Amino acid sequence: MFHCQVYVISFLLLIIMNVNSVTSFNKTQSKDIHLEAPHLSDKIRSNRPRLKPLANVNRSRTTPTIVTNQNVFNPCNGTYIKTNGTTCGLKEIMIGRCHDYQYVKHSLFLTNQSIKNCTKLYEVFESAVRYKSYCNMNMSTYERYFDLALDGVHVINRAMFWSGTYAITHTYSGNGRNYVTLEDTLAAAMVDGLIWCGKENDTEGFDFVSCPYTCKSNQWADLAFWGLASKTFAQLAVGEIYVVLNGSQAHGKSAFRNNSFFSSFELPNLRRNGTYRVTKVNTLVLHSPDEIAVEKCGEKSLLDLEKLVRSHGFDYACKDDPEELILIMCSDKWEARECQIAREVLRQTWNIKLYGKSNSNRNSLSLIVFSCLFFIQYYSLKIISG
């Protein structure tokens, strides 16, 4: 009887060891190395303004008066410090980004894109905003800039739109290598993350102290750049496009909203006819690890989106959490419950690749062998005892 008790206790101990085998094996393999969980992007938010219901506003323009002898304080003063106004070194940054974009990063990723004159591009941009009040801006302010920057560009089967998924969408797009977002185009890449606003009656023509983020007298001013950017990008899309939405919005917010940039500027401006037309809208709905799935394909606002897309004459498809994007989401939510389980399975598979078999398999085999020995000994004692 004593022998049976010993075997039972040993059997239970081995089960406990087997349950923790994968974790302990991984720790012994990398006990001297600690890695932090990766993050999707250094910049997790766009600087596009939030959309608000547009009211009847005064859109009249005033003629700026330039005063050249006024001594105005410029906090930049030849440096690149951060202020609440126009980004210091705006000209140098934009021209530098333009050259980097064309000659290093993106020269091969967009179809039929000719080399642009970076200095001329900046001058066109500057002429649209310098010496002009922020509240005098509207959707036509930057038309010449976008026409020049994006002339001849078509994004074929790789245009990717987003709403509430900035970081993961841009990680997945690979900065234009896999898919192309608005921010991957030259016109937007030159200014993404920067701040600027003109100033009347000023020698610099830019306000380097403080830029308004809203204009109560003209809400179109807030959309002057990014509203037109979204509209223009939609007009460049050809073939199948992709829309990445957040199905786990905080406070139960809808994945698709009627006042989003996609609804207001992008979907209405997708080309329906001609050689360079859009044929299909593919919606990818993401649900963040450890967060509630508020909406799935074919539900609530996503059903409204499908009806709206089809009413525009486009084919429609929707997929919840594609595997490629699950891996990216888990890279940012390293310790989430779902991701920990996935990591364990991935680790076992990788151990098979590295060592021919996983540690859990070795322990499972030892468990089977021990179980056989236990039952042989148990029945042997039972036969002997009669």
UniProtKB/TrEMBL annotation:
Question: Does the UniProt entry include the keyword NAD?
Answer: yes
Matching InterPro entries: ADP-ribosyl_cyclase (IPR003193)
What Gene Ontology cellular-component terms does the record carry?
plasma membrane
Instruction: Give start-end of the signal peptide.
Output: 1-21
TM ranges are none
Query: Keywords for this entry?
Result: Disulfide bond, Hydrolase, NAD, Signal, Transferase
Which GO terms label this protein's molecular function in UniProt? NAD+ nucleosidase activity, cyclic ADP-ribose generating; phosphorus-oxygen lyase activity; transferase activity
State the Pfam families in the record: Rib_hydrolayse (PF02267)
UniProt similarity note: Belongs to the ADP-ribosyl cyclase family.
Q: What is this protein called?
A: ADP-ribosyl cyclase/cyclic ADP-ribose hydrolase
Organism from which the protein derives: Rotaria sordida
